[in-house]
Design brief:
Blueprint: H1 4-12, H2 20-33, H3 37-44, H4 47-55, H5 62-76, H6 82-88, H7 91-99, H8 107-117, H9 121-133, H10 137-145, H11 158-165, H12 169-175, H13 196-209, H14 216-220, H15 227-231, H16 242-247, H17 265-277, H18 282-290, H19 293-303, H20 307-321, H21 332-366
Family: Belongs to the HGH1 family.
Protein name: Protein HGH1 homolog
InterPro entries: ARM-like (IPR011989), ARM-type_fold (IPR016024), Hgh1 (IPR039717), Protein_HGH1_C (IPR007206), Protein_HGH1_N (IPR007205)
C-alpha cells in the first residue's frame, strides 16, 4: 500500500486546479483501490482523500465525476467508513439535494450510495433524521414512482433504500399513515419486470411494514387491499376449481396459461414471509381464509424447488390449515419471524459484501492504474 509521502502526493492530484489528465488517472487509480478490502482499509486512514473525492463529484469532467461516484459506492459498502461519510464529510445533505434535480446525471449512483449507507440501524437513523428535516420520505416515494422524473436515471435503488429505512418504526409509521397515500403507491411494483432491484426493494419495504401487526387489518381491508399484490407474483397458471377461483380476489381468478411466477427466490421468500406476518392476528387469518389464500399456496408448494423458499411456504401453509392457537399465543409467529429477519439481514449483508469484493476486483483489473 502507499506510503504517507505517496498518499500526500496522490492528494495533491485531487484538487480542482490539477490537470484533467492527472486527475483522471488518479481518480481511476483510487477507484481500483476502493474495490478491495485492503484498499478500503487504507482509504479509511486517509479521510482527506475521501473528502477530495467527494468534492470532485462536481468536477466538470463527466469521467472524473463518474470515477468518484463509483468509488463512493464501493466505500459506502464498507460499514467502517460510514462514520467518515456521514459525520465527517456529511454526504447525505448534498446528495439528497442532487437527487431532487431532474437533470442530474448521477442520481442512480447517489441512490446506490444512500442505500449502502442505510443498511445498518445506526446510520439508518441518521439518514432518516436528515431526510425528514429536508426532503422527506414522501418525496422519495414520489420520485421512485414517477418514472419520467429524470430521463437520465431510473431510481431503482430507491427501492432498497426504502426497505432499509423501514427497519425503523418511525419510518414504517410514516409509510402507513392513513391520512397519506404512501405505501399504496408501491404495490404495483411487486411485479415490476424491468428491475429485480426495484422489485426486491419494494417487497422488502412491504415485509418490514407488516412487522407492525397493529396495521394488518387496515392493510388487508378493501380500502388498501395489499393481499392481491403479494399473492399474484406467487400464483401460477395451474387450474383451480370453480369454487376455489370464486373465493379468490378478482385479480387472481382464472389466471392465463402463460402466467409466470416471480423468478427470484429471495423475493419469493420475502413475499411468503410478508404473508406469514399478516397471519399473526386472528383477524388476518380470517381474511386469508375468506380470500382463499390456501389454494394458491398449495400449487406454489408443488412448483417450488428452492429449499429455503419451500420451508417458508410450509410455515405459511401450516398456519393456513392448522388449528387456531391458544389464547395468548396469537403473535408467536410474528416473534419467530422477527428473529428470522435479523438472521436474513446478516446473510444479505454478507452476500452484498461478497458481490462488492468481486465487482471491485473486476474494476481494479479494468482500470488504468498508476503507480
Amino acid at each position: 500500500m502507499l506510503s504517507d509521502f505517496e498518499a500526500a502526493e496522490l492528494l495533491s492530484f485531487l484538487t480542482p486546479e490539477a490537470r484533467p489528465d492527472v486527475k483522471g488517472h488518479t481518480t481511476s487509480y483510487i477507484l481500483g483501490l476502493s474495490g478491495n478490502r485492503d484498499g478500503c482499509r487504507f482509504l479509511r486512514t486517509k479521510p482527506d482523500i475521501i473528502t477530495a473525492l467527494f468534492a470532485l463529484t462536481s468536477d466538470p469532467s463527466i469521467a472524473i465525476a463518474k470515477d468518484c461516484y463509483f468509488t463512493l459506492i464501493n466505500l459506502s459498502a464498507d460499514e467502517t467508513l460510514h462514520q467518515v461519510l456521514l459525520t465527517d464529510i456529511k454526504v447525505i445533505q448534498v446528495m439528497l439535494k442532487k437527487v431532487l434535480d431532474p437533470e442530474f446525471v448521477f442520481s442512480d449512483q447517489i441512490c446506490s450510495i444512500l442505500s449502502n449507507l442505510t443498511r445498518h440501524l445506526k446510520t439508518c437513523k441518521i439518514m432518516f433524521k436528515v431526510l425528514q428535516e429536508d426532503v422527506g420520505v414522501a418525496k422519495l416515494v414520489e420520485i421512485f414512482c414517477a418514472e419520467s422524473f429524470n430521463k437520465k436515471a431510473k431510481f431503482h435503488h430507491l427501492g432498497p433504500l426504502l426497505s432499509n429505512l423501514t427497519q425503523l418504526p418511525e419510518a414504517r409509521s410514516f409509510m402507513m399513515d392513513k391520512d397519506r397515500c404512501v405505501i399504496q403507491r408501491l404495490f404495483s411494483y411487486t411485479q415490476y419486470q424491468a428491475s429485480v432491484v426495484r422489485r426486491g426493494g419494494v417487497v422488502g419495504t412491504l415485509r418490514n411494514c407488516c412487522f407492525d401487526h397493529a396495521h394488518h387489518e387496515w392493510l388487508l381491508s378493501d380500502d388498501v387491499d395489499i393481499l392481491p399484490f403479494l399473492m399474484l407474483p406467487l400464483a401460477g397458471p395451474e387450474e383451480l376449481t370453480e369454487k376455489e377461483n370464486e373465493g379468490l380476489p378478482v385479480d387472481l381468478q382464472y389466471l392465463p396459461e402463460d402466467k409466470k411466477r416471480e423468478e427470484d427466490p429471495d423475493i419469493r421468500k420475502m413475499l411468503l414471509e410478508t404473508l406469514l406476518l399478516l397471519t399473526a392476528t386472528k383477524a388476518g387469518r380470517d381474511i386469508f381464509e375468506k380470500k382463499s389464500v390456501y389454494p394458491i399456496m398449495r400449487e406454489f408448494h408443488k412448483w417450488e424447488t428452492d429449499v429455503h423458499v419451500t420451508a417458508a411456504c410450509e410455515k405459511l401453509v401450516e398456519v393456513l390449515i392448522g388449528d387456531e392457537p391458544e389464547p395468548g399465543m396469537e403473535n408467536l409467529e410474528q416473534e419467530e419471524l422477527e428473529k428470522e429477519q435479523e438472521r436474513m439481514k446478516q446473510e444479505e449483508e454478507e452476500e452484498k459484501k461478497k458481490r462488492s469484493d468481486t465487482e471491485g476486483a473486476e474494476k481494479e483489473q479494468e482500470a488504468g492504474l498508476i503507480r
